[in-house]
């Protein structure tokens, strides 16, 4: 996939994961592409930041304490202001059940961890319509 260096410049991307390693990996990859990266360790922290920062796309881990990825996604999708914001589920399991459950709560896509740079950027290009002209 040939992605020009700055077509993602300034795009706000949120990564919600209780793993510091995953947050850091995603943040490093995305910042290289010029994205503005917001991170949160769980759904509660994320929801406060989402209403404040209004990211263009949200990556959320499924397995998190307090509020898991499914609950977080459902809360985002139940808010009329953020219903159209694409949510990509992240999971270390590649199960059909998890993918189906992700679709039920309104997730746009499901990525298996560890994800690659191309998978991460591919998801953004697939779901953020303003990427090439924002």
UniProtKB/TrEMBL annotation:
All residue ranges annotated as the Response regulatory domain in the record: 12-128
InterPro entries referenced in this protein's UniProt entry, alphabetically: Bact_response_regulator, CheY-like_superfamily, Sig_transdc_resp-reg_receiver
Xref: Pfam families: Response_reg
Keywords: Phosphoprotein, Two-component regulatory system
PTM annotation (4-aspartylphosphate): residues: 61
Protein name as it appears in the record: Response regulator
Phylogenetic lineage: Bacteria, Pseudomonadati, Pseudomonadota, Gammaproteobacteria, Lysobacterales
């Amino acid at each position: 996939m040939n992605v020009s260096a700055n077509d993602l410049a300034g795009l706000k991307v949120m990564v919600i994961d209780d793993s510091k390693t995953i947050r850091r990996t995603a943040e490093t990859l995305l910042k290289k592409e010029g994205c503005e990266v917001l991170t949160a360790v769980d759904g509660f922290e994320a929801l406060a930041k989402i209403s404040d920062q209004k990211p263009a796309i949200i990556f959320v881990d499924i397995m998190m304490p307090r509020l898991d990825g499914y609950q977080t996604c459902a809360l985002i999708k139940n808010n009329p202001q953020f219903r159209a914001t694409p949510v990509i589920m992240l999971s270390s399991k590649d199960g059909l059940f998890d993918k189906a459950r992700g679709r039920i709560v309104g997730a746009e896509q499901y990525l298996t961890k560890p994800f690659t740079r191309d998978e991460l950027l591919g998801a953004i290009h697939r779901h953020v319509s303003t990427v090439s002209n924002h």
